[in-house]
Amino acid sequence: MIHLPLENPGTADSRSPGRFLWWMARGQWRTLAAGAFFGIVWMGAQAVMPAIIGRAIDQGVADRDGSALAWFAGLLLLVGLVQAASGVIRHRFAVTNWLVAAYRTVQLVGRQAVHLGGTLPRKVSGGEVVAIGTTDLSHLGQVMDVSARFAGAVVSFVLVAVILLQTSTTLGLVVLVGVPALMLLVGPLLSPLQARAHRQRELMSHLSNTATDIVTGLRVLRGIGGEQVFHDRYRRESQTTRRAGVQVAKLQSVLDALQVFLPGVFVVLVVWLGARYAVEGTITAGELVAFYGYSAFLMIPLRTATEYANKFIRARVAAARVVRVLALTPDHQDPAVPLPSPPEGSELVDLRSGLRVRPGTLVALVSEQPHETALLADRLGLCAPEVDDDVRLGGVPLSGLTRAEVRRRVVVSDTGSMLFSGRLGDRLDVSGDGRSVDRALRTASAEDILAALPAGLDTVVAERGRSFSGGQRQRLVLARALVAEPEVLVLVEPTSAVDAHTEARVATRLREHRAGRTTVVTTSSPLLLDAADEVVLVRDGRVVATGRHGDLLAAEPEYRRVVTRETDPEPVAAGTSGTTAAGTVEVER
Amino acid sequence: MSASTALPVAESRTVRRYAGRLVRKHPRMVWGALLLHVLAAVAALAAPRLIGDLVEAVEHGTTTEHVDRIMLLLAGFVVLQAVLTRFARYVSQVLAEKVLADLREDFVGNALALPLGTVEAAGSGDLLTRTSRDVDQLGWSVRMALPEWTIAVITAVVTFAAALSVGWWVLLPCLLGVPPLVIGLRWYLARAKDGYLRESATYSQINATLTETVHGARTVEALRLGDERVRAIDDDIADSFAAERYTLRLRTVFFPSMEISYLLPTVGTLLLGGWLYLRGDVSLGDVTAATLYVQMLIDPVDRIVSILDELQMGAASLARLLGVADVPDDRTATDRVPDGEELRAQDVRFSYGAGRDVLHGVDLHLGVGERLAMVGPSGAGKSTLGRLLAGIHPPRTGSVTVGGVALTELPLDDLRGHVALVTQEHHVFVGTLRENLALAAKSGATEDDVRAALAAVDALEWADALPEGLETVVGSGGLPLTDAQAQQVALARLVLADPHTLVLDEATSLIDPRAARHLERSLAAVLEGRTVIAIAHRLFSAHDADRVAVVEDGRIAELGSHDELVAAGGSYAALWESWHGRGS
Asked: Where in the cell is it found (chain A) (predicted)?
């Protein structure tokens, strides 16, 4: 068996679904060919079984020849063993074919996701890509899997037809024409059945979503009520799904009956003709038994061919989805000739907003609307959807550099930052040197999170860091960004979900930690703003004021409003004392 | 973080009893389906017998008329078998759908009746797995595996009986197949379930890693984690490959052993039958019919065997689904009625599971209509205290009472009327915004009630701006709400539910700080006269409250009004100072 995963999945032909499937098949042609070979041997062995039994009855039993009987019984045993052996080898190749196709698809899509980076969520919905991981990979695998059996089906069909033709031209023709005709007879029933089954599947998945919805919100339902409403809703949907299932059963049972009836009629036809020949003496009794066996056997290749057609259609749909993802390109294409990278310690300037970030300082960005500073933060790191020439590092537009170079020098940690699953220590140690993690955890005031974990850094993080609370996750994400130790670190609302005690600690430690390197923080927390070397107030995408936190509080009424959240007139019944936070500050200052 | 408790799994006795009850619930359909399947299987047996007669007749010389008669009879049986199959399949499918609907509805009903403490402690992971994977697995088992298996068993039994009807000697070659069948099957089944479970777990893992990589694509790019993600995916594939190889090895042993157990009886029947014919003990027709019957046994036996592991997994899923009903209720309701609305905690100690206490003797008394803010470093026990004050867990020692009655003595419906908890974990149900809000309203919320509740949490403006206003479908698959909006919805629900005491555990943490303070104030206006315990991480929330409790290391370290605490110069005062930029 070959070794999986492949070292390198290669570059797929993503021009069309058909080409993709062809590319995939070409890449695994050896195992496909081997699977087909053993598929042919396997089904061929099955195909000759009736002939052997027929001969045994004819030449052994009917002719009362004991040694001939023993010889044919021995042959039957041998062919049976060949069938068993080739069957399991065929199966092994089929599984390999399945696995190569499925794993390769995952590798391709994973690598493409990594290549696209921030562009991916903007171009295609996450669910679409995830569907590749859940259903499409198995559809692509199946078409490769079934191909070996399909080859066997075609060959064994021809084999049986030739045997029959040699015995009797009429019988041979009846089989050759009859079997495909049977396939066509079932055809008209298939599409309404598929439509009903499709509706049933939709209802089932809807029902499953409802159940998931109820369970996810169980805390709410048990906490404040509404169980009966939701149980009734589920019951209604469950009954609708059940009725859809009954509709499917109506057609499915007819199809099941046809699968008994049509081969049955075919068997009757073949045996009838055979029996008349036997009466005339054209064929022997044993051959008659063989005919019966053939006509029953032929249903297997017939079913396999139908299965292959179905799987192929599904694989094409799956391939279409994979191709759509693989054909995407990143928003920021690397320039053909990148500009020379500016020296370390260059000033970061945004011409559009008028922001200047002096190297080695901690700068805080504030705006009335948080998305304004978030967008500015994205632009500072070439992460915004629209690529512009206005952001310059040491005078060089970021768009003139390669993506890799920009990421090396500027890191933007946004609010949607994902904490990946795996060993905590590994997930935090993005620089790979293992030394800076402890210091970063201290700076992010995350020591208590670690202390509460019995396995410490060896703890396995759950998917998307779900085992941690929002505030814990935020601190771990901050620590991870610090470990990266980039020349310029841009943090978007790094402490919004953290309690005030902790935030106060983070604010002072962050400054020490990043001493000598450039750090930009978007925040509206006084604790963090106070720690910044420079605070920049942004309105409508432009810098409107710059200074120290204390100075701006005193001098800029707009800044004071934004930072102390006294944006609106007091609600009448707010019920607080006359001294507001802002008021206290003003008196104290 | 609380200790996670796994939900119980039902014992096999319970599972059998439940299955028995389901069968007795639909007796006519069960017996009807069985009878139809038996008849269909019997009709199928005509072919080998008639072919045997035909061979016999041909061998001894016969007329075309006789052949035609036999073949017409055969055609008649084919029609009969087809018609019986149609109805047998239909009835059993309808039955399966009925049983499945009963099963899943019972499960959701049981899940909805889970004790509050269990829901809060167990988290949703285990229950979610049962809801999605086990319900799916069971659906597959009941819809496909169980009917197929039943049919296969009936067919096998009937066919075997028919083979024996040819002569008792047929039993001997059939016995030849039993040892490889039994040994192979036992060996395989002992390993298959774990092997396939592990295999399917590796696919979940591949999918999880891929999902993370896709949803976190931006983070991957920003922190240059590309190589690491690619490695993670390849590692998952390597695990999956190992699991696949294991099950493939199982099948590599199992499949041939099955094939041999099918082959031996066929060869044996032919040999033995031929020998008996040579001795003149049986007719040629008997040999033919017996050989064909034995061959006919292969298909149903193969189906019985190959569906077994599917049924095994179905039974395991059923046990997990039924297990949800086995969770003991953690409240023992008494008929004591609270006298008043005063909430009081006395010498409260608490630990999750057996271990060290997270609360060490907390005393707290809240006046009616008082607003208390709880602050303190993370991990100090604020959320735990909040849960105890909301009556979700009973204290290990000490008491939490409302109007003199312990919270855990109140029936759940009554408790909700007194105290409600909103945490930062929120959930928007699939449905209209109005449905989402009204689910807890005491007596059908009016339009005005709903709008007032939305206004109280500063959400009316965006709610009105939704494409279809309050009738807009939100939640998963509908219009997505932001985290902040979801928190507003959670708070508006609480306003409509209208308990006299509210515990808000960081209930506004995901709302932008600039908007949160305004929200808290307008909410406070609506909740005037209600007792509010707010666990807060923003100091302005504390500043706006009547009293502030600083929780440190499972104790209330400081308690008093904002001004008192600032004047006292303790840890709260220090924090407040630094919040105003004087600490550094």
From this structure: Cell membrane
Chain A residues 69-98 with CB within 8 Å of chain B = 69-70, 72-73, 76-77, 80-81, 83-85, 87-88, 91-92, 95
Within-domain flag for A10: no
A382, A335 contact by CB (below 8 A)? no
pLDDT band at B384 (very low <50, low <70, confident <90, very high): confident
Structure tokens at B478: 């509908």
Predicted pLDDT at A589: 31
Mean pLDDT of chain B: 87
Give the model confidence (pLDDT) of B7-59 as tens digits.
888 888 998 999 889 888 999 999 999 999 999 999 988 888 888 888 888 88
**Of residues B284, B512, B563, nearest to A370 (C-beta):** B512
Q: With DSSP H G I counted as helix, E B as strand and the rest as coil, what are the percentages for chain B, rounded to 5?
A: 65, 10, 25
Q: Are B421 and B386 in contact (CB under 8 A)?
A: yes
* Rg of chain A on CA atoms, in Å: 36
A449 located within any domain: no
Residues A143 and A189 in one domain: yes
Same domain membership, residue A317 and residue A362: no
Q: Which two tokens stand for residue A135?
A: 């259903």
Of the candidates A475, A397, A402, the one whose C-alpha atom is nearest the C-alpha of residue A442 is: A475
Q: What CATH number is given to the structural domain containing B14?
A: 1.20.1560.10
Claim to verify: residue B217 and residue B132 sit in the same structural domain: no
Considering the domain architecture, whether residues A408 and A531 belong to the same structural domain is answered as yes
**Of B238, B284, B427, which is closest to A61 when you measure between CB atoms?**
B284
Considering the domain architecture, whether residues B143 and B195 belong to the same structural domain is answered as no
**Residue A293 main-chain phi, psi, to 5 deg:** -60, -45
Pairing of strands B555-560, B547-552: antiparallel
Per the CB < 8 A criterion, the answer to whether B577 and B401 are in contact is no
Q: Residue A425: exposed, middle, or buried by beta-carbon count in 10 A (0-12, 13-18, 19+)?
A: middle
CB atoms within 10 A of CB B47: 23
Same domain? For B532 and B433 the reply is yes
Question: Can the peptide bond before residue A5 be classed as cis, meaning omega within 30 degrees of 0?
Answer: yes
A397 at B interface, C-beta within 8 A: no
Q: Is B139 on the interface with A (CB under 8 A)?
A: yes
CA dist B184 and B164 (Å) reads 25
The 3-state DSSP composition of chain A as helix, strand, coil percent (nearest 5) reads 65, 10, 25
Tokens of B411: 């029936």
Q: What's the pLDDT at B580?
A: 64
A126-160 pLDDT tens trace: 777 777 887 788 889 999 999 878 888 888 888 88
Q: What is the pLDDT of residue B125?
A: 66
3-class secondary structure, A520: strand
| ipTM, interface predicted TM-score of the complex | 0.85
Contacts of A465 (CB under 8 A, 6+ apart): A418, A419, A420, A421, A473, A476
